[in-house]
Amino acid sequence: MVSSFILKLLAKNTYRSSVLSEKRAIENQHKTLQNIIKKGRKSLYVKQVAKKPIVNYSDFLKNIPISKYEHYKDFIVRISNGEKNILTSEPPMYFAITSGTTSGTKYIPLTKTMWNFQSKAIKDLLLLYAFQTNNYNFSNAGMMFIQGTPKVKYYNKIPFGKLSGISARHIPFYLKKNRFPSMKTNSITPWENKIEHIVRETWDKDMQILGGIPPWVITYLEALLSYTNKKTAKDVFKNLKLYIHGGTSFGVYKELFFKLCGSIDTLEVYPASEGFFGHQNLLDSSGLLLLTNHGVFYEFISLVDFQKGLMNRVPLEGVQLNVDYVMIVTTVAGLWAYNIGDTVSFISLNPYKIIFSGRASQYCSAFGEHVIEKEVQEALTMTLVKFGGRVSEFSVCPKICSNPGSSHHEWFIEFDKLPNSLSAFSDYLNQMMMAQNIYYKDLVVSGVISVLKIQIVKTGGFNNYMKSIGKFGGQNKCPHLSNERGIAEFLLKNYV
Questions:
Q1: CA-CA distance, 310 to 301, in Å (whole number)?
Q2: CA distances in angstroms from 344 to 278, 435, 438, listed in the order given
Q3: Rounded mean pLDDT of 426-440?
Q4: CA angle at residue 196 from 190 to 200, to 5 degrees?
């Protein structure tokens, strides 16, 4: 085991390194881009898309166009067959798979260098937490992460799997004894059976750290409390102290989580198959520190420009506060000016801190309102704070009616606990949406659309929707916002 003394030294050095990195963010980005160019300038991809040699950012901006996964499919096939120097000089250890709405399964190259950056980011997070809490007993702490299966398959010669499952295959030796669930349990399918086995394996352990996407951790906590007949997870795990979350906004799940778990610290992370983009480095400060020296070069396009088809990319030094940006990444693993589909907003420029504001592909604009996920999340969170209630899951979509002015936004909400007054809750939620989005406000005030309407979803409704599309459990997330009515029509049949 790693002694507390060694961990204390590591934590102190990690804190110093983090502070220094904050001050050198722009310098880090310049060095990262130069390293990526050096490794990838002779790759087949760059030779095919770049009209001139790339030496600096100006060359890069002029010669490397914005890309999406469809541009990589043929290159991925060649990599899978063992061809070298296709996207960059380093071959991938794995393909980290994600699912796209238009591309089907996406195979994202994960090289050893990129994996080391992914691994370093989570280690640094724990060491920074230890430094701030003066608790260095992590080598003996039970850690449980709800994640995808560690089993891998092969795309020709390259193994592939979910990033979280790949992570489970690379646990440091000094943490394996107290890291849960076990490989055997983590490989169980279907999801319901897996959760049952995780509960049986962990309920009597000294669990101190939990991690995973909020809805799936909540599923685990509910099963744990049912199995142990306890009120909170803190009653089961006396030393439980930290929950690491990511993948979706925590705000609307917060009250239900703390009801099930009890009071513990929380930290947010922003890992993705393409790279580890940020983490909450300070317990008492919200927002994610953008990781500028972890193998990713960032560019940003304002969401307003993006929606107009204007691809005006700016590097990190060109960003502004409180603007929603589509994030474009170039990585040491071989992605070039790649649109990951996420939108972020900067809440600090010194240091550079972001919040995840949604998916560029997930929006509601059936009437020209351009509502994004951040707006519905914040409106719902503020309404829950004012009127009470606890939310298990929710989704928003447009309802287009034949009568003028009757169309509206339809909110499907699965409550764990109803607010005191659903009518007042609905009215205030509509006010908060108007405060969040001026276009939505104008449409309501002018009578083009009516106020939003809430549909109460029966317990398990969203889980059953995810099962119906084959995406229940693991790292899959239910869309909170849609311009279509697929989720709505499913729920209206049996679950409202």
A1: 8
A2: 11, 20, 19
A3: 93
A4: 140
What's the helix, strand, coil split of the chain in %, to 5?
40, 25, 35
Residue 297 and residue 90: Cα distance in Å, rounded?
17
Q: What are the tens digits of pLDDT across the range 251-293?
A: 888 889 999 999 999 999 999 999 999 999 999 888 999 999 9
CA-based torsion, 213, 215, 220, 225: positive or negative: positive
Host H or E run for residue 201: helix 191-202
Contact by Cβ (8 Å): 357, 288: no
Give every CB contact of residue 72 below 8 A, 6+ residues apart in sequence: 45, 87, 335
For the chain, first and last CA: distance in Å? 52
Place of tokens 């951790």: 217
Which stretches of 71-196 are assigned E, i.e. beta strand?
A: 92-100, 104-111, 142-145, 153-155, 158-161, 179-180
Tokens of 75: 């290159």
Dist. CA 322–CA 433, nearest whole Å: 17
Give me the phi and psi of 222, to 5 degrees please: -60, -45
| Cβ atoms 7, 175 nearer than 8 A | no
Residue pair 470/191 in contact by the 8 Å Cβ criterion: no
Q: Is the peptide bond before 214 cis (omega within 30 degrees of 0)?
A: no
> Tokens representing 420?
């005191």
pLDDT of 4 above 90: no
Q: Output the CA–CA distances (angstroms, integers) from residue 36 to 47, 110, 114, 122, 427, in the order listed.
A: 15, 14, 11, 22, 51
What is the predicted pLDDT for the residue at 187? Answer: 87
* CA–CA distance, 272 with 269 (Å, rounded to integer): 10
